[in-house]
Write a structure and sequence with these properties.
single chain, 236 residues, alpha/beta, seven-stranded mixed β-sheet, five-stranded antiparallel β-sheet, 6 helices, globular
């Protein structure tokens, strides 16, 4: 049973309903608090790669997994783009609406049919929604079907190999060789409630590039962040 604690935290912050930190824990990291305020950051507070993505966005934009809507809000107020934010969280979308963000809707991108966009925006490790590496083809094909002629996908992710210990030879010690090291299981706790664990994916750039090419997409490394993260552009 999904409780939508992430969405609840976003809505609590927007409505000043005693928001608390979100506690995140993964299969490869210990519990760590995250301030919900981070999701409401302004353009100047965003990392360089997010700023770059917003500067590159054009035309009709689908903001996939928009969360608190900070990227959509910036584009709505500071660009000529027509922005369409979507999220599977009803509470996050309600918070977006309260912030004055237009064209919002509760939707899973995999359920969208018959729509075309000039820019598909997947920020804050937007690849995470793929869940596992085996799902890359299905997601990339869906995203490809939503691209208007000349359209682009702007996706950021991280190479989390740095989180694994080195062995005596300088290689990385990865617990399981049967699965891709970027596949993690997330656990979220908020106000004493725990969300059902969910799969989340981090992808190194070379793996993304290979998957893009295998699915008939071009792939370009736009900018690398300060902590093993990067922004990529994909197009047909």
């Amino acid at each position: 049973m999904i409780k939508d604690l992430f969405g609840q935290a976003i809505l609590d912050y927007q409505t000043n309903n005693q928001p608390e930190d979100i506690i995140t824990e993964t299969s490869i990291s210990e519990a760590d608090p995250m301030s919900v305020a981070y999701l409401f950051r302004s353009f100047s507070e965003m990392p360089q790669l997010e700023q770059k993505a917003l500067q590159m966005a054009r035309g009709k934009v689908l903001d996939i997994g928009c969360g608190a809507g900070s990227h959509s809000l910036y584009l709505q107020e500071n660009s000529a783009c027509e922005v369409f934010p979507i999220d599977i969280s009803e509470q996050a979308i309600k918070a977006c609406q309260l912030r004055g963000i237009q064209n919002t809707r509760v939707s899973d991108v995999m359920a969208i049919e018959g729509e075309l966009y000039d820019t598909l925006l997947l920020m804050m490790n937007g690849i995470g929604i793929f869940g596992k590496l085996k799902n890359m083809t299905a997601f990339l094909q869906k995203l490809k079907s939503l691209l208007a002629p000349g359209g682009q996908m702007l996706i950021d992710s991280s190479d989390i190999i740095y989180m694994f210990d080195e062995d005596e030879d300088g290689g990385k010690w990865i617990p399981s060789i049967e699965s891709y090291y970027g596949e993690v299981v997330f656990n979220i706790t908020y106000k004493g409630q725990q969300e059902e664990p969910f799969d989340w994916l981090y992808v190194d750039y070379n793996t993304l590039q290979n998957a893009a090419h295998a699915n008939g997409l071009q792939c370009e490394l736009v900018v690398e962040g300060e902590h093993f993260d990067y922004l990529a552009k994909l197009w047909i």
